[in-house]
Amino acid sequence: MIRPSRAPAWARSARAGALVLVASLALGGCGxxxxxxSGSSASSAEAGAVNQTDVIFAQQMTVDLEQADQVLRLxxxxxxxxxxxxxxxxxxxxxxxxxxxxxxxQSGWASVPSVSVTRxxxxxxxxxxxxxxxxxxxxxxxxxxxxxxxxxxxxxxxAQVEASRGQDAATRALASRVVQSRTAEVDYSLGLLExx
Length: 196
What we know:
The protein is mainly alpha-helical. The longest helix has 29 residues, at 137-165. The protein is elongated, with a radius of gyration of 17 Å. The chain is 65% helix and 0% strand. The two termini are 20 Å apart. It has 6 helices and no strands.
C-alpha cells in the first residue's frame, strides 16, 4: 500500500505559476506537458527499420498508458482542488495523443523483430487501488500524487532507454517528448505534495 510522503525541499515548485502552465497547456490543446504535438512527429512512412528497443518501448508504453488512465480516472469525483483536477485532465489529454502516435508508428513498421519482454515498470498493487477508490479529498490527493510520481518516474526511465538506444527516429522523438512531459508532471506533482 502506498503511503503519502512529503516531497524533498529541492523539489518545491511555484504552485501558482505551475498551475498557470498546466492550464495554458491544456487550453492550447497540443502536447500539453510535452511541448510539441504528437502530430508534428515524423509520419509512419518515415519510420524505417526498428530494433528490439523500439518494440519494447511501444509495448510497455501501451501497457503503462492503460494503467495510468485507470488511476487518472479516479481523480474525478474524489479530488477536490483545482490543481489536481487540472493536472489529471492535462495528463489524460497528453496520453491520448501519445497512444494515437504509438498506434500510427506501429502500423507503419514494415518488419518487427521478435522480443521477449521482461517488464520492469511500476505496477500498482490491488491494495493501493482499493485505497484510492475509498479515499476522497485531501487524503485521496496525497496518495494519488504519490502514486502518480512513482508511475511517471518509471515511464521516464523507459523513455530514456528508447531515446538513447532506439533505431526508429520517430519513436525516439516520441520518447524524448515523453521524458519532457513526465518530468514536468513529476515536478508539478512534487510541488503540490510539498505545499499540502
